[in-house]
Specification:
Number of helices: 16
Order of helices and strands: HHHEHHEHHEHHHEEHHHEEHEHEH
Shape: globular
Strand order of the largest sheet: 1-2-3-4-6-9
Radius of gyration: 21 Å
Distance between the termini: 46 Å
Number of strands: 9
Strand content: 5-15%
Helix content: 40-55%
């Protein structure tokens, strides 16, 4: 099974240029093996680190109003700590050039602090399974707010914590390649939520008054439909799928500082059946709940696809995060699938349902759609009718929902 690395790794390149330290993705791909497609790396990728001026020309040509990009933690702080700031390669100057170039051309920078690329030095000390990474991330975030926050007004702390936790620390098919079934993803996610909240509070207390920006976290989610709408078991399974995917992070951050009740009760019941003395899902203290609650200035959503969900009884004696859901994902055979990604069923109306779900569940937040797209196999045709049609239909579905909100 092969998974795509993060966008930062796909476009930036210059993996060891100008004093950059190694990230977990550098280590992961350089090890090669079954988990790395054709032993390819992102050492060069699209080369944005050296070809930024060409990228900026394309941005201007497209007439973009916003441009989202990710900072490289290990490029700025090679060992992940502020004790070692990379002055050698003028990496701060590089990001200054990117930000200033965007602003000079009327483009708003949307900056992500973390896109799966943990400095290897921090991973060697436990990575996201270690609470020490919470403080390291907060220090890194404060460094970025201080250096770039006079010009950057839209910040995202962590991109898709669900994907990073489940694929990087549970199944091990993404960097850093840790396989800890039933526990790894929960531990990693627990610390990512606390790290996000710590960074939000740092911005709120130290920078917001003078900089006037907004801070959130980019959450990904499918939309879930019951496989059989008349089946109570399938309907409940669809609710669990949403709880284990989007609500896992959105409920503590946007509502009450704690995990969804449906998620906590399901994991607790399974752990009892499996002989565990306590739940495999970590618990937040009361103080942590108060610290996490309300730590987002808008709702940042990454949406790609929809699934139909069947109830699936978990009879496993061994723990597994995916089995904890007791929900099987199914792609409807009538849905077209993007040629470049076998998992990406094209379901534009799913986004409309998901937007309504977020509005109704999370008290009508401002929503930014921070990722959405359509992939094709190489070589993609220049006469790109499929992608054009995909975005046309997607924008139509968004417009339908927005018009209902305006009534």
């Amino acid at each position: 099974m092969f998974l795509l690395p993060p966008l930062l790794y796909l476009f930036s390149g210059g993996w060891d240029a100008d004093g950059k330290g190694p990230s977990v993705w550098d280590t992961f791909t350089h090890q090669g093996g079954d988990r790395v497609f054709k032993n390819q790396t992102g050492d060069v990728a699209c080369g944005s680190y050296t070809l930024w001026e060409e990228d900026l020309k394309c941005i201007k040509q497209l007439g973009l109003t916003h441009y989202r990009f990710s900072l490289s933690w290990s490029r700025l702080l090679p060992d992940g700590t502020t004790g070692f700031i990379n002055q050698k390669g003028n990496c701060v100057d590089y990001y200054d050039k990117v930000i200033d170039g965007l602003l000079a051309n009327g483009v708003t920078p949307v900056v992500t602090l973390y896109h799966f690329d943990l400095p290897q030095h921090l991973e060697d000390q436990g990575g996201w399974k270690s609470e020490a990474t919470v403080a390291a991330f907060d220090a890194y975030a404060q460094f970025c707010f201080r250096i770039f926050g006079d010009r950057v007004k839209i910040w995202l702390t962590i991109n898709e914590p669900y994907v990073h936790a489940s694929l990087g620390y549970e199944k091990g098919v993404n960097a850093p390649g840790v396989v800890e079934l039933g526990t790894g993803a929960y531990r990693a996610a627990h610390n990512m939520i606390k790290a996000h909240a710590a960074a939000w509070h740092s911005y709120n207390k130290l920078f917001r008054k003078n900089q006037g920006g907004l801070v959130s976290i980019a959450l990904n989610s499918d939309w879930a439909e019951p496989f059989d709408p008349n089946s109570p078991a399938d309907r409940e399974a669809a609710k669990r799928h949403m709880a284990f995917c989007l609500d896992w992070f959105a409920t503590p951050i946007f509502l009450d500082g704690d995990y969804p009740t449906i998620m906590k009760s399901k994991i607790s019941a399974l752990c009892k059946r499996q002989g565990f003395p306590s739940s495999r899902l970590p618990e937040f203290t009361d103080a942590e709940k108060m610290m996490i609650k309300g730590t987002a200035d808008f709702f940042a959503l990454n949406y790609y696809t929809t699934r139909k969900i069947k109830y699936q009884d978990n009879t496993n004696t061994q723990p597994s995060m995916s089995a904890d859901k007791e929900a099987e994902q199914v792609i409807d055979s009538s849905w077209p699938v993007a040629s470049g990604s076998s998992w990406l069923a094209v379901v534009p109306w799913g986004l409309r349902h998901l937007l309504k779900y977020i509005k109704d569940t999370y008290n009508h937040p401002i929503i930014y759609i921070t990722e959405n797209g359509f992939s094709q196999s190489d070589p993609a045709p220049l006469d790109d009718n499929q992608r054009w049609e995909y975005f046309r239909l997607t924008l139509q579905e968004i417009l339908k929902e927005v018009r209902l909100w305006d009534k």
